[in-house]
Amino acid sequence: MRQLAAALLLVAAPVWAQTQALEELALVSEHPINGIAAGNLSGLAWCGEALWAVSDREDDRLYRLAGGDADWQAEAERFVAPPPPSTALPWGLRMRTLVAGLLRGGNLDFEGLSCDAVGNRYLVSEARAAVLQIPPAGSPQWLALPEGMVRQARASSMLWHFNALLEGVAIDSAGERLWLAAERQRRGLLALHKRGSSWHCSAGCVLMSEGGSEPAPAQLGGELQPRDFSAVVLHKEKLFTLERQAHRICRRNLNDGAVERCWSFAAEALTDARRYPPPYGLAEALWIDEQGAWVGSDNGRHTRADGEQRPVVWRFAAPKGGWGRRR
User: Fold this and answer.
1) What's this model's pTM, rounded to 2 decimal places?
2) What long-range pairs does 293-296 form, CB within 8 A, spacing at least 24?
3) Which stretches of the chain score pLDDT less than 70?
4) What is the pLDDT of residue 327?
5) In the prediction, which pLDDT does 18 show?
6) CATH ID of 21-317, from 2.40.128, 2.60.120, 2.120.10, 2.60.290
7) Where are the domains of the chain?
8) Residue 173 pLDDT
9) How far apart are CA 247 and CA 263, in angstroms?
10) What is the pLDDT of residue 92?
11) Which residue, of 32, 173, 182, 215, is most buried by count of CB atoms within 10 Å of its CB?
């Protein structure tokens, strides 16, 4: 009987650990962003000497963020994307996405941003389940992703729902390893490796897939919401995921995507002054460095309780002991 109890304890321990109160990240600064006309901030990355952003409502520009201690200005860098590759997404999803893009803007629906060491920027298109590479000089080009990537993701029950497809991208400094985050119902991570000019999946494209729901923070009523990813970042050979509904950042194992530790930002993001009308999270963009985390909110056309209507980027300090600390 004691052996059975011990076995059950080992199985349940990871679940119990995730239900415990998480360490809250400390807010260092808050920066409303001027100059993003469409108002939607969907990706962040530190490239070279600056923080860059992308909007999912604009298919032809990136934004360099510049400013001081308070408000920042978004300076547009324009590009022309070539015609996107054909996609293995089913016809119904493609048509719904096309109509949505025509109505609200952003036919390519860029949802994530990452950079390599030589200055290439990588944008993930949710609408096309594809990745656009923008070099520091020269023309943008779409990566030659594996034909079976979408099929494998859908076989693991990801990429089945409209507006719940690929939401994040991460690249290593050498530009040879790529990770993509599937948003929700089910959420998951895909891992790819570069060989020559094309990309392959070494032992299958799906690193992890996970369904289910969990309670929203108490400030939002604690109702069950689908588990989700809204961004993924590679830092010090660990993957960090932004989990919008739960208002947390989680460190994950590079080999299987298993969660190792999580930190909450709900206490600062959900103060009375910073609350938005929707009963769900709006944090869409993430960048991790040694000193802390940049988190960007995609408020759409929603106005905060304090009257702020612009997208906002928060700077959180790294947790005590650093991002690599064990439990």
Assistant:
1) 0.92
2) 293/25, 293/240, 293/249, 293/318, 294/44, 294/46, 294/51, 295/44, 295/242, 295/249, 295/265, 295/269, 296/41, 296/42, 296/43, 296/44, 296/53
3) 1-20, 38, 327
4) 66
5) 47
6) 2.120.10
7) 21-317
8) 97
9) 9
10) 87
11) 182
